[in-house]
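@channel sequence for tomorrow's demo:
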Amino acid sequence: MPTSLLRVGVVFGGASGEHDVSIRSATTVIRGLSDPIHQERFKVIPIYIDREGRWWPESVAQQVLDQGRALAAEELPEPLPAPGLRQIPVDANSIDVWYPVLHGPNGEDGTVQGLFTLMQQPFVGSGVLGSAVGMDKLAMKAAFAAAGIPQVPYLGLNASELQDPELLERLLNRLENDLGYPCFVKPANLGSSVGISKVRNRDELLEGLHQAARLDPRVVVEQGVNARELECAVLGRSTLKSSVVGEVRFDSDWYDYETKYTEGLSHTLIPAPLPASVTQHIQAMAIRACRAVHAYGQARVDVFYNEEEGHIWLNEINTLPGFTSQSMYPTLWEASGIGLPQLVAELVESARE
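structure tokens (generated this afternoon):
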């Protein structure tokens, strides 16, 4: 085996509600890095983080990848260490580039990025700031507002406000007056549509607020708009480039977790049927969004487009987008002329810039 192989530590799983999605994403990333065209370029070292935050070496990680699912506690080597990161299960000097494939809290939010930064080792994707701001929907929206990027009307709140009956009544009145129905209630720090509710009346609003508050101490409520859902991928570090624009279409009421990750419940149009001027506007908006939160490496930017009125609103940025077979990020780049093996290689190279 050539000694010049670049050793890539692919970290996946994680102590978040998106653990299963991470396993599927890692499978795709590793397939790209292991493509025959890279046989003399990369050596992949998978590292698994279980649901309790314990880090496991390649032998356990490979078992998870082979089975395509999380391992139960009794399937993990014993004795089980205490939850959380106690030690990195590889010699850090044996990794040239870290490739986190983690979704949600404890992986996409700047925590792992901070660890790699302290280790002074290169890693794929945004740094601490871009990851943290891109993960927290309220911080993200504040950054977009400061950059003058249009968004749908929204309000943020703390979960503690739901405990005081008087505060809660005022909050419900304000949400109804300022946003109306339907609206969307979201935990501030979860992705993949986890914990999101579309609500149409006060009872549903109250239920949605409590559901989101159980998952996150910060909650965002957004006005519902009649719009097409469009996505654009961004790639690069010192220089950012944007992909073609894609559209997600679905028959369900909205793009929830089940619709997002179940074969056949949604389909994509890539490139999206749009006037050239709208496509160019969205591509430029995607790069503006990355710069507003200091995101780089990889990002997927989601926008709403109301073609009747010509409105384009930035929805959100995802600094560690999914890489599953249904995921838009690799699919958008495939349609832009960058296939999976080239895409993951460019991401690894961006980490070394």
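heads up for whoever presents: DSSP finds eleven helices and 13 strands in the chain.
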